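ZP: hey, is the protoporphyrin IX containing FE complex queued? I don't see it on the tracker
AM: it wasn't, my bad. submitting now with these inputs:
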Amino acid sequence: MSVLLAVQFIIEEVYNHPNISAVVSVSSLLLWLSIRRPYDIPPNPWIIFPIIGHRPLLRGDPIVTLRKLRKELGEVFSIYVDAQLIIVVNGYAAIKEAFFTRGDEFHWRPNTRICDLFHFGVICNSGKEWREQRKVTEAGLEHVKPNSSTFIHREASHLITALRAGEAKAEDVFVLFHSAVFNALTSVLVSRRMDYKDVRLEKAVERFKENLELFSDSKYPNFFPFQKFLMGDFFDVKFLRINMTEIHQKIINPIFEEHRTEYNDEKVVDFLDVYLKEMKAQKGVEKTTVEERSCQAVLYDLLWHGTVTTGATLYWAIVFLLRNPSVQDKLKEQIDEVLTKTEATSEETNGSQKLKPELPVFFKAFICEVQRCANICPISMAHAVAKEKFLKGYRIPGDAVILPNLDSLMMDEDVWGDPQEFKPDRFTNSDGKLSIPHEFKPFFLGTRCCPASFLAESVVSVFLAFILYNFDILPEVQVSLPSSQRKKGLIPYPPNFKCKFVPRRKSQ
Ligand code: HEM
């Protein structure tokens, strides 16, 4: 009754006061404009807030929210983050259709402020520019593939020496692991490595980590494009740019100049040589993007993304080894059989061990399970379409951000049964052979899949095999194991932890 009276009072007030009536009309129009949604886009949660859209739903762990929305809304759904429409593609069939079968249509990157910063390289490029950069990147990676394992073995030996120097004291190996990965990549790609104590290396790892955090928070500058005209650095975009410039100036540019000075057509050794050769071949070609600025940007892309992804995978692997001691024991037994000691003076390994070509099945299964559970690219990278398309009957507007939800593959209960459990055996079949369901796609699929998956796999398996052969990995305190909770961010790391690398008796 009192509600009815209140409504009646408001109607009378509005009717009798034209000013109030105008304010109410304009506010209603604005409210309607800010929450209206086209009828033909993929379904979205009915509750929507003016200006911020569905943002409140993403509080907590957004990945868990996406899992819930998939159950409620289906394989292709949408959400509004502020005014930005985001379309989430879930499940193997829909992801394969969009990004593999129709990979050319869905290969674009969204036109966001953050992508602007990176757009000369390969990761954030689209269209003709992306095709050119992708082609030369693939050619360069193909060229270094045959010799890459020699460099990775060499870096693994350096890593073992550094871990031994820790004298089995509890330590956080985050920076050391990322430095070793960075070195493995630079050895393969540009024939250089740095001492682990070199400040340039420490700074590079620190800047990469900072940039990842800034990139993960990039939602604000992305969706408020006018911020570039503001003074100050409200959204840390300028900080991100300064960090990138530092890595370019201290590491990438000097290496580029050295290579350019020493370049010899007859001696094309590494990735950078291949790029320089292609630059030479394309000299004079109108509007080519295969030039100095793009080459440096591609190197930045490879080193940044390659270091943080591979470093995160290794860091997670140690968490799972500490939390599953019986798995660690089984792996050590198997690795002892395939790692052979070679002469310490051996040119090939510059160190002490070498892996036989074939790794044990359980070891491979362990690495798959680490990648599945660590799930370090849960929403891969943002995609877009150049102009309006249709997917599964829904309209996909040209200005939408499209997310391939890899978490919907790696953590699907229908595929894995108990996806939250860490069980390497799920990747072996009854014949004891490796069996990989097609939903396992840590490196994505289709036209924009990771072009360096072979490098990442090789670094992860060689480093882990060397570590398991040489050390017992023990928790800092026996009763407290590191957490497997995932931190927020584009690449979800575990919380930092310390552990001990105690030399194994047999390997002394
Ligand atoms: C465990 C380690 C790694 C994982 C899980 C991983 C995962 C991925 C994923 C999921 C994408 C696809 C993004 C998309 O949706 O477009 C991607 C792209 C890419 N990855 Fe990796 N990656 C890893 C290591 C590396 C390494 C070591 C390198 C290079 C040294 C590398 C270079 C690239 C590049 C250049 C792209 C962009 C391709 C393009 O846009 O065309 N990745 N990676």
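AM: back. Residues 127-165 form the longest helix (39 residues).
ZP: great, adding it to the tracker
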